[in-house]
């Protein structure tokens, strides 16, 4: 017997509920993409927004084996795209599901959605080699999933074809401007220059309280989007004090703990006062080392870093895939984000994008807020476009490839 999900007084966690709203639109969204193969359970219009979420919670009744939900107007939408009487999500990421940062945030959002609403256990496929993205995504699509979340732009190349091949599945990707608009694919993106500038500025404010003037920026291998992030981070750092500098140190891989540890040791020996592990699977290991050495450190994606009790963060550099998913779903429900469109989340307009202090003085908080507001007002647009031009070897644009580091 089917029941219908309607708004009620029962409060769910924002991410789970918002993801539920995404599923709400899955049957009516005509776009689909294929998915990946690992069945192991866990463990062209641009739309901008000015923080359309009205709070940290949304309401809804828990689903118990039902496959329909109500839209804002109360009309039930059938989510059971394959007609098997159940709802199952799939998620594909190029990095590890437990990186403690960017990829884990996306995976957690899907897990929470499924658990909170009695859906089937999601199929999570991680560590996907971009060269194998088409095969992995196609295999996932064939495993009875009703919706697929693609965790990063590295996996976007086959989506145009797969959304047509598996048109009954709802597809969503936090791909960024590097991925073209695709009919049937809802997208979110951000502006890495905005995010990284705010991160550099926040780091500079904390660095003033130390005897050091330098920051280590640990990345992979000087990819274009890393270059943009580093240049913008450096600009934000210098805005606090022109004597401050950041040094980019490649580790060779976003997920190689050994390579990242070697890079960190090199940086620590040079006397840096802060480290930004712009990494994936190796991110947490470096944060742990920074904690041991008393260095300023920060997250690379996760918005809940300040709430961790196993690692200590000074700054949350927020580009959390779970939060982006929540915002996208709210926009879908409101009718402001449709298939073939993307929602661009901007610093200063959306609370959970850009740098946030975990523990700072009122003066530091006020200074960072002032920069966030200036970013939202477009005060740095010319500078950001110059950064993009240098990073990508051409003209700048309003948005950049999706942030993918950890």
Number of helices: 11
Helix content: 25-40%
The CATH homologous superfamily of the largest domain is named Response regulator
Q: Roughly how many Å apart are the termini? A: 42 Å
Describe this structure in words.
The strands form 5 sheets. Strands 3-17-11-10-9-7-8 form a 7-stranded parallel beta sheet, with helices on both faces. A 4-stranded parallel beta sheet has the order 13-12-14-15, with helices on both faces. A 3-stranded mixed beta sheet has the order 1-5-6, with no helix packed on it. The protein has helices at 14-24, 102-116, 133-141, 159-165, 192-207, 224-240, 257-269, 283-293, 321-334, 362-376, 381-392, and strands spanning 4-5, 11-13, 45-48, 57-59, 68-70, 76-78, 89-92, 123-125, 147-150, 170-173, 185-190, 214-219, 245-250, 274-277, 296-297, 315-318, 341-345, 354-357. It has 11 helices and 18 strands. The protein folds into 2 domains: 4-190 and 322-345, Rossmann fold (3-Layer(aba) Sandwich); 192-319 and 350-392, Response regulator (Rossmann fold), CATH 3.40.50. Residues 1-77 and 395-406 have low confidence and may be disordered. It has 406 residues and is α/β, with parallel strands linked by helices.
């Amino acid at each position: 017997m089917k029941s219908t999900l309607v708004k009620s007084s029962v409060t769910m966690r924002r991410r789970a509920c918002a993801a539920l709203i995404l599923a709400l639109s899955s049957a009516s969204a005509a776009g689909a993409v294929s998915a990946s193969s690992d069945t192991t359970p866990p463990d062209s219009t641009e739309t901008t927004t000015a923080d359309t979420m009205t709070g940290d919670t949304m309401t809804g009744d828990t689903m118990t084996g039902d496959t329909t939900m109500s839209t804002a107007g109360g009309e039930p939408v059938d989510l059971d795209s394959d007609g098997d009487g159940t709802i199952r999500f799939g998620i594909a990421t190029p990095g590890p599901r437990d990186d403690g940062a960017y990829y884990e945030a996306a995976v957690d959002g899907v897990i929470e959605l499924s658990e909170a609403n009695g859906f089937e256990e999601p199929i999570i496929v991680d560590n996907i080699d971009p060269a194998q993205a088409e095969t992995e995504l196609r295999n996932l699509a064939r495993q009875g999933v009703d919706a697929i979340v693609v965790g990063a732009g590295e996996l976007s190349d086959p989506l145009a074809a797969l959304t047509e091949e598996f048109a009954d599945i709802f597809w969503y990707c936090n791909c960024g401007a590097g991925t073209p608009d695709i009919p049937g694919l809802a997208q979110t993106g951000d502006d890495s220059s905005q995010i990284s500038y705010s991160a550099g500025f926040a780091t500079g404010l904390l660095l003033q309280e130390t005897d050091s003037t330098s920051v280590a920026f640990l990345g992979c291998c000087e990819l274009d989007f890393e270059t943009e992030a580093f240049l913008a981070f450096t600009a934000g750092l210098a805005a606090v004090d022109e004597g401050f500098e950041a040094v980019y140190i490649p580790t060779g891989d976003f997920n190689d703990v050994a390579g990242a540890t070697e890079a960190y040791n090199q940086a620590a020996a040079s006397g840096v006062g802060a480290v930004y592990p712009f990494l994936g699977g190796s991110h947490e290991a470096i944060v742990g080392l920074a904690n041991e050495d008393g260095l300023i450190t920060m997250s690379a994606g996760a918005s809940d870093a300040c709430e961790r009790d196993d690692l200590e963060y000074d700054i949350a550099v927020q580009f959390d895939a779970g939060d982006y998913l929540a915002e996208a779903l709210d926009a879908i429900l409101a009718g402001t984000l449709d298939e073939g469109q993307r929602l661009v989340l901007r610093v200063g307009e959306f609370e959970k994008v850009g740098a946030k202090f975990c523990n700072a003085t009122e003066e530091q908080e006020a200074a960072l807020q002032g920069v966030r507001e200036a970013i939202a007002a477009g005060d740095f647009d010319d500078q950001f476009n110059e950064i993009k031009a240098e990073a990508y070897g051409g003209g700048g644009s309003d948005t950049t490839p999706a942030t993918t580091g950890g």
